[in-house]
Write a structure and sequence with these properties.
By secondary structure, the chain is mainly beta. The longest helix is centred in the first third of the chain and has 7 residues, at about 125-130. The radius of gyration is 46 Å and the shape is rod-shaped.
């Protein structure tokens, strides 16, 4: 079980080439039926320590790539290095190649001051795939300005240049291997005589056939004073090419060359130097000792990269968050994710745990369903509930091989790639906007008829995106909408109406109030109480059941009161006041009324009405 880690990548804009971290560290890992080979050549005419007749490098050199036809090229990297601050543009088989990074180290020479050395690399997979086997010529590495401006390089015989191509290939006949490529730039010399490098991210299942390779610069065959290369404190050698006391001596293991001047491209057997179960390897380099004249001498060695090939049978769980669904004003998020077992050498078991985090808070757990074979994936979904008080702009972390405590249960080829992040914005409903009220005339019993669209006159909207509701709950669930908004009768006074305006991916909410007022009654000029069912009574519109406390008085032309009525007693042309003619219908003529509405907003109304038959 190994602790799960979150890895964030920070991108900085700046110079095209920046000096990177110099420590040798894992650059790329390949898990499967993989192996590697390397080619390269020096740009030095001879070993610097022997011949000081030149202070320059060759314009070009070449090497031959010869891979068996069953080996499928997966990756190819070009490395080049030399004295000076660096040349980031070179040519390979007449193709311009630009460096993807620039590494630099400095040697503080007692006599010549600080001397800088560099290395570069570039991904040239496309070039090697198109060119295939054959001759590769490297050229246009220009360090002449540095050599001319600083004679210290030639004075202490560290003027050098060289190149190498690493090719990672796949072959179904190979065992399941883990190929780890580490790179950077580290130096040992008379000032720093020992360097230990710890290689992490390995897992040794079987050490049979295990090997380790090095690309180093500026090693000299004749400066083998106190020089050693050890793995896990065991000094390694490869005689007769690389002796135990002269590992960096200008050799190329792949071609058995001893004239790879001021560069080393070597491979060593690791079988007896690592143990099953190891998860790291210690590499130690030393230089410096007493020479035959009784003085002190040391080689200057610059280590550029290390590559290990180890038998491995482990899965590698990774997770991708593919998509998500959020709903308006909802703290639930549906996450769509895929678990992969790509860069692996074994099956990822079923029930591998998955954890989901908001910051460091565990908010959901799941697990894989089926065993995942090498190179396969499994997709699934999970619904996560976000705490109510969370910021709507949040980052969700999905972590596979995580039991909810940020700890794993499965040993993997890479324990540092289990987590994936996604930024999510919850769809929070904006504050409800209040619109001006609609006022309707009382049509009786405090009801009125409204066109609800009249409340939206200041909004720019599509009527098909608008719906009206009597409650906020109905609006949120889009249930019980008002069916005919243009002809709506209120059910209370006042009444609040809620408006939902669809605004994908969410919606907006408005509200307004319906209120009632007693509008002025309309008094007709006449009626005909002849019992023909048409206009048979003094129908004052907007009065009855509205001004319920009103009083109506009718007078004849002599000023005598002949009728008194109220909300329950409209005038039908009959007399209900006076001694004579009580209950009789009045004759044709003009009559006068006083209508007291008993409403503080209105004065008594006075007028006439004509009665006819």
């Amino acid at each position: 079980m190994k602790q799960a880690h979150y890895i964030f990548t920070l991108l900085f804009l700046g110079l095209a080439y920046q000096l990177s971290a110099q420590d040798i560290s894992l650059f790329e890992q390949f898990n499967g039926r993989y192996d590697y080979t390397a080619i390269g050549n020096t740009l030095n005419q001879a070993e610097n320590n022997i011949d000081q007749s030149f202070c320059s490098i060759l314009e070009s050199s070449d090497a031959t790539l010869s891979l068996d036809s069953e080996n499928e090229i997966i990756k190819a990297y070009l490395y080049w290095a030399g004295s000076g601050s660096g040349d980031t543009e070179v040519v390979l088989n007449d193709i311009q190649v630009s460096s993807e990074d620039l590494y630099s180290v400095t040697f503080n020479d007692i006599l010549n001051g600080p001397l800088e050395y560099f290395s570069c690399y570039a991904d040239i997979t496309d070039i090697v795939l198109s060119q295939g086997n054959g001759n590769y010529e490297f050229s246009d590495l220009d360090i002449s300005a540095d050599l001319m401006s600083n004679p210290g390089y030639c004075n202490n015989r560290t003027n050098f240049g060289g190149w190498s191509i690493y090719v990672i290939y796949q072959n179904d006949n190979l065992p399941l291997n883990q190929v780890n490529l580490y790179q950077g730039l580290e130096i040992i010399n008379r000032n720093v005589q020992e360097k230990e490098i710890i290689l992490e991210n390995i897992d040794v299942i079987d050490n049979q056939g295990a090997k380790i390779g090095f690309l180093a610069w500026e090693g000299d065959n004749s400066l083998n004073y106190g020089e050693s290369l050890s793995v896990n404190d065991n000094i390694i050698s490869n005689p007769p090419l690389n002796l135990a006391d002269n590992a960096f001596n200008g050799t190329n293991t792949f071609t058995n060359s001893t004239t790879f001047y001021n560069a080393d491209l070597d491979v060593y057997d690791l079988e007896n130097n690592i143990n099953i179960g190891d998860t790291s390897v210690s590499i130690k380099l030393t230089t410096g000792g007493i020479n035959e004249n009784g003085g002190f001498s040391a080689d200057l060695i610059i280590l550029n990269n290390i590559i290990t090939v180890l038998n491995s049978q482990l899965p590698d769980a990774t997770i991708d968050i593919n998509d998500y669904i959020v709903n308006c004003d909802d703290n639930s998020i549906e996450i769509f994710y895929t678990v992969n077992n790509f860069n692996s050498t074994d099956v990822l078991p079923a029930n591998t745990p998955i954890a989901f985090y908001l910051d460091s808070l565990l908010i959901g757990q799941s697990q894989t369903i089926s065993p995942l074979n090498i190179g396969t994936s499994e997709s699934n979904t999970i619904t996560l509930t976000i705490p109510e008080d969370s910021n709507p702009n949040l980052t969700i972390a999905a972590s596979v091989d995580d039991d909810g405590t940020m700890s794993g249960t499965v040993t993997e080829t890479n324990e540092n790639n289990n987590t994936n992040f996604i930024d999510i914005e919850l769809l929070v409903i904006p504050d409800i906007i209040t619109l001006p009220s609609l006022i309707g005339c009382n049509e009786g019993f405090e009801t009125s008829t409204y066109n609800l669209y009249d409340a939206l006159t200041n909004l720019d909207y599509d009527e098909t995106l608008i719906s009206f509701y009597r409650s906020l709950e109905d609006l949120e669930t889009t249930s019980n909408s008002i069916l005919i908004p243009s002809n709506y009768n209120n059910i209370s006074n006042p009444e609040t109406i809620y408006v939902r305006l669809e605004s994908p991916p969410c919606y907006e909410i408005y509200q307004f109030q319906l209120s009632i007022e007693n509008c002025p009654p309309y008094v007709p000029n006449g009626f005909s109480p002849n019992e023909d069912t048409f206009n048979d009574w003094f129908n004052i519109q907007g009065l009855y059941d509205i001004f319920t406390e009103h009083e109506l008085q009718i007078y004849n032309r002599y000023g005598d009161i002949i009728f008194e009525g109220n909300n329950e007693k409209p005038w039908n042309g009959k007399i209900n006041r006076g001694i004579n003619n009580h209950g009789k219908t009045v004759p044709v003529g003009t009559y006068y009324y006083i209508l007291n509405l008993n409403d503080p907003n209105y004065r008594p109304m006075v007028g006439w009405v004509y009665v006819n038959y």
